[in-house]
Every structure is written in structure tokens, then in C-alpha cells.
UniProtKB/TrEMBL annotation:
This is TonB-dependent receptor plug domain-containing protein. Residues 1-18 form the signal peptide. The lineage of its organism: Bacteria, Pseudomonadati, Pseudomonadota, Alphaproteobacteria, Caulobacterales. It comes from Brevundimonas aurantiaca. GO terms for cellular component: cell outer membrane. It is found in: Cell outer membrane.
Amino acid sequence: MISLCLTLAGFSAAAVQATPAPQADPPPVTVLPDVEVAARRGAARTPPQYEYDAARIDALAGASVGDVLGQAARQFSPGQPPVVIINGVRMPDPSVFLDLPPDALERLEVLPAGSAAEYGGSPSGRVFNLVLQRSFASRDGALTAAAPTAGGFRELSATARQSRLQDRNITNLTLTLRDVSALLADDRPAYLRDHPDSADVSLTPESRFLSANAAFNRSLGDWAASLNASASQTSSRSTTRDADGLTVLSTDTRRWEVRSGLSGSVLDWTAQVNLLATADVVEAEGPTPSQTDLMSWSGAVALNRSLPGLGAGPIAVNLSADANRNRTRTEAGGETDRRATTASAWQGQITVPLSQPAPPPGLEGEAKTLKIGGVSLGGLSVSLGAGGRDTDAGGGNSLDLGAAWQPRDKVSLSASWNRTLTAPSDLDRFAPPRQGPNAVVYDFRTGEAVEVQTLVGGNPDLTAARSEGAALNLSLGPFTRWSVGFNQGLSLARTRDGISSSLQPTPQTEAAYPDRFLRDASGRLVRIDLRPFNATASETRSLTTSLSLNPPVDPEASAATWTVNLFHTWRLTDRTELGRGLPVLDRLAGDGGGVSGQDLGWTLSRMKGPLKIDVTGRWTAGYRSRATIGEDGPADLRISDFARLDLKATYRLFRDVSGRRAEGARLELSIQNLTDERPSARLADGAPAPGYGRDSRDPVGRRIEITLGKRF
């Protein structure tokens, strides 16, 4: 119903736009001899459909260029990451530019749906062009403190960053530290009352994180080179309880990563080469101590160019290939296990325009637009892609078909179909088995909630998953001065041998997978094996809808500016076949733990002067979790609807730099889960559901975070 209402709203906006006011004849074109018209600096080859100018960027009050990009993507490209280019061209690693402060961004161009094909992206995707200032430099830092209103733990973090930009040359240096204390069951009396054996047990772990990053991009004539190096250390420590008493689990992960890239043009091809090398050392302490060393090398090459087309425009050709090699060494239980894996893949895609979009009045002869019965067909293109993959876990090929249609300005429709083979990751296959954090689950066999140990790690027997998907997407807008935008997508996915890791503790599931559930002599569930496995098959269908409003900004006026975004997901089908003789699980009906049929999210942002308020909401429809596959019964769980509000207030002290509002200092107050809501449920017969006490599913609750940032 919500999707239907948003659909009607979107078509209403389109209808308003479809009846334009009478316009005067266009003025005659005046040709001035000896006058050269220069292209706009940083402009993309395709004209933008919408543009964020300096005033709009400042009004968003984002913390970084990446934050501004994220807000724009939520409005114009929900659910499909855009291709990001810098100053009109592809960069080896666009992410090195995203940490810049937002006033380093001169404008953001949103290209039409379907423009991504020209840059090696999806035939239905968009391109976001980030046009940066010619010169920019900044030093900034931020301190953050956070804690739940119920107390129990605290989180402290600090970030320092230095950035320098000159044209496309950039240097970014970033240092990040974070320290989080543990939340114990003793700090939540309601939890301890429901689970009296959990004294001194960690509900959330103690953790520390430290990272240093250096990122560079340099212009080499018409080429660009990037280097991104980082080092990090993450440690966590938690306390669990088993039959022998308290057990301390700890992990320490050290990671080193180097990414490099090169992009430019050669022989009419736009080329991009990327290399990645990583090294990880993971040390785990507990009942099963282990040390794992992982090393990975990978390389990728992408080529794209334009060829003469059929009269409606050039044909876009995209070719890519990648290869990787991984080595793993694990020491556990006095034994050493060594493994090495390799994988390679290639992909090719062509996009053929069949008809150009209808031109503006007076320029009909400038475009190759097909007409049917005198009616312009608008812009139309089709794409075909194919690829292959070879891995130690299996090989196969892929096929992609797509079409993009723009019957009129600001109205786009796209369709796609694909068949792919996805190999399991090395972590899914070779991560050492170890005890994970305890979890509270509802045991349908005994009708009680129990805190169980978990076994996590890899499964070397995993095989590649084969999937087939189709999607139909509609994009309308932006219309009117309020920039009303509407997007709706219908998707279908079928998978064979997909990777899964969760099994609901029902009598049928336990009978089919007895090796994944461990009970003590009294029949109490004490451990669940959460290591991944291949499910036989799955099928999902969903309808996603978004609606956005972005009123104009007057940089000279003192009136407030605001934006609104609505998102809705309606799951139409969600079925899984686990195998081993189990019936097909209809998760929307409640099998396999069940899943909600609808999600609704919204954001409202309002800014006036130095103060910006962001309100974010999320609602999830209630659902059933069955005790017996395929049957409703009194022992089923009825999970209630869940709604949550987050509030963030940001007060900024600005200083004027070359006509732009550059942030001098920032004070930010964020309240997550404003009304302190918690997941709740009852049994189907109306009785209270064990394991759904106030702190059982979310022991943190409302959380307050304060950030102080300063530009130096």
C-alpha cells in the first residue's frame, strides 16, 4: 500500500511536468565569427540532469565530500551505487578524494540514468561527477564521546586529517583511534533477571581500533596515478560462560593494505589498472587459540572506448579482467595448515544506442530520434555483456542483458537480466574455527530462550554459487522547483548453492543438521555452529520505492532550507531450500526464522544559519517465526512491528573562504534510538515470548554521541 501511494505521488509529479506552460518561440541563434566557446571546467561528456551548486552543497552541511555524495546518491541513485568520476574523467581510485571537506567541492553533476555505461558501469546506472576546487588545503580533527543513557559502557574516538589538493593532485593523511569499553550483563538488571547465569558475561565486547592512512593521486600528463596505503590494528575482548565457568575470548587483528592505480588513454581506449596487496595477522585466544596469517595479491585491468554507432550515437565498449592469489597459514591445536588459492575473471560489455532522446523545441533536426506514428521514441539503448570466472572452488560464465529507455526528459525506464557465478571468499572457506560471542536464541524444541555459545570460522567444502537475476527500474524527475524525484524498482533473484550460515533451532532443522546443534545431558541447547554452508536454492522478489524533495536554495536569503527522502521496501517472495530433506522454507510466512515483509525509512533535514537538524526514522513490519515448517501453531513467535527515530543536531561556526562557507568548528549531538524502543514479541497463543525481555535483543538502547570538530 505504501509503495502504491508513493507510485501515485511520483506519477502525479510527472503529470504536472508533462503539461508545460505555453512558451514563446526560441530566439534566433546569433553566430559570432572568431569566437571560441570553451567547455566548462571539469564537465562530463554527458550534460547533467541535475546539479548541486556551491549553495546547495553548503546547505547540505555534510562532514565531507563523501557525505555530500552519499546524500545525493540516496536521492538520485537509491539501491544502485553510481560511477564516480573526478573533474569529468575517471580516476584510478576516486575514494582518495572523498575525505576532503565539503567546501573543496565546487559542484556535483548528476548525469542521467544509463550514463554509467559510457564509463564501464551498469547500463542503467548513473554517473556522479565531482568537480573540485582548483586549489584547497585543510587540517582538521574531531573528538567523539558516546554512551547509552542506561549507562554501562562508553566509547571514545579521535580523528586527525590533513588534506592538500591542487587540480587533480591530492595528498590525504588520516589517523583514527577508537576505544570502547565492555557492557556487562550486571549493568542490565532486567537481562540478569531473565538470564541469572549471565553474571560477569559481556553483552557487547571491549574493543580498540587504531589506523593510519596515506592516500595520494598525481597527474602524469593525460594520465593519473594513485597510491593508498593503510595500517590498522583491531582488538576485542569479551567474557562468556560455559559449563566450566567464565571464559575470556579475545582476538587481535593487524592489517596492512596497499592499493595503487593508473588511468588514462591509449590508442583511443580509456584504460584503468589497479593493484592491491594485503596482509593480515589474526590471533585468537580462548578455548581454541589460533593464529592465522593471510596474504593476498590482486590486479585488475579495465578498458572502455567508443566506436561508430548506427546513427543514434557511438557504441560503448567495456572490457575488464582481474586475477588474485591468496595464501593462508593457520596454527591451531599444535597443527599448521597451509593453503593457497587463485582466481581469475574477465568481462566484456557493449552498449548500443538505437535512438537519441527527443531534442528541445527548435532543434529537432539535431538528434537521431526514432519515431513511431509521428511520436518520438525518445532515447533507447541496449546492452550485452558476457564473462567468465575460474576459481579453485569452481568455474563458470556470466551473461548480462540490459535496456535503457528515456521516452522524454526526466523519465527513464531500464530493464536488466544477469546470470553469474560467485565463488566463496577465502575467509568463508579458510578462517580457522573458533568460539564466537554468545547469543540469546529461542529454542523451539524446549520453548525457552537460552544463551548459547557459537562456533564461527570457515568451511573449505564451500562451492561457488550460481545466481540469476532480473530487474525493472523506473526513474522520474527531478520535477518542479522542489526537485521532486521518484524511483521504483522491481527485482527478482534465484540462487543455487548460495552461501548461508544461520539455522533456526526448530525440531525439523535440528533433525536435518544434527551436527550443527549441541545439547547437554539435560537436553539444554548449549552451542550452535554458525560456519557457512551451501543452501540448495533460494528465490526472492522485492519492490523498492523512493520519493525525494529538494527545495531550491537562495544563498542570499536567511530562510531555512530542508530536504525530505522516503524509502520503502516490499518483499514479495522469500523462499529458501536448505536441502537434506527439509521442505522449502517460506520465510515471509515464518519459516526459517521468518522475515519482515515491509521496511519504511525516511530522512528529514532542515538547516537555518549555523544549525542543521537531521531526523531519521525506520519502521519494520511485524512477522511470524514458525516452530514447524509450513504450519502455523500456538508455539510460534509473533515479532511485533518495530519503529525507531534517530536525531542529530549540528551547530557549525563558519568562516568565509573565497565566497564559500568553510567550516571553522563543529559541535554535533546525536541521539540514536530517541524513544528507546526495543524489539518485542509474544507467542502465537498470546503468552509472553521468552528471550524478548527489554534488554535481551538490544542491551544498548538509546545512545547519545557528542562530537567536537575543528578546522585548523
